Amino acid sequence: MDVKTTFLHGILQGEVYVEQPQGFEVKHKKTHVCRLKKVLYGLKQEPRTWYARIHSYLVKLGFTRRNVDLNLYFKVVQDMPLILVLYVDDLFLTGSEPLMLKCKRELTFEFEMKDLGLMHYFLGLEVWQRPSEIFLSQGKYVVKFLERF
Questions:
Q1: CA 14 to each of CA 35, 36, 39, 49: distance values in angstroms, whole numbers, following the listed order
Q2: For 27, which DSSP code?
Q3: Binning pLDDT at 50, 70 and 90, where does residue 1 land?
Q4: What are the residues facing 86 on neighbouring strands?
Q5: Which of 6, 30, 31, 101 could form a disulfide with 89 if both were Cys (CB 3.0 to 4.6 A apart)?
């Protein structure tokens, strides 16, 4: 799943002010600034506000964040596990099909998302999936490495 306009989903904590945007200055108030009500691209707070928002929503859905990796969330429903990995604006789900479909519906209700289907690449790994197996390869990395040296 890919979250569209990821960093614009965050909620600002505290007051943040910016200079008047170029082309939108009020001529007789050039020394004034704008107080933000929502996050803008380019703010230092963007990633932090996004992660805080998605974390609180995932906890609300019943997920528990793992201490081993703070981007790994886990949930068990009727003895069936559901695992969610968060990587910036991408969410990777694995588990039983009904649980994944329900989770995708809940996530798309809260955030504008696009379902990218089965994973093919992740952090340089090539991924092939079959009904009962997952195959990982670094073939492209090895070829680039060999070409380089």
A1: 11, 10, 11, 11
A2: G
A3: low
A4: 91
A5: 6
**In contact, 58 and 84? CB cutoff 8 Å:** yes
Task: Assess contact for 49 and 64: CB atoms under 8 A.
Answer: no
In degrees and rounded to multiples of 5, residue 147 shows phi and psi of -65, -35
Neighbouring residues of 48: CB distance < 8 A, sequence distance ≥ 6: 10
What residue has token string 């479909």?
101
Dihedral angle sign, alpha carbons of residues 59, 61, 62, 67: negative
Give the dihedral sign, CA 127/102/83/9.
positive
User: 């040296």: which residue's tokens?
Assistant: 149
| Model confidence, pTM | 0.64
Phi then psi for residue 55, to 5 deg, are: -60, -50
Q: Determine the Cα–Cα distance for residues 117 and 122; give it in Å rounded to an integer.
A: 13
Identity of the amino acid at 135: F
Cβ atoms of 20 and 32 within 8 Å: the answer is yes
- How many Cα atoms are found within 13 Å in the side-chain-facing hemisphere of 28? 0
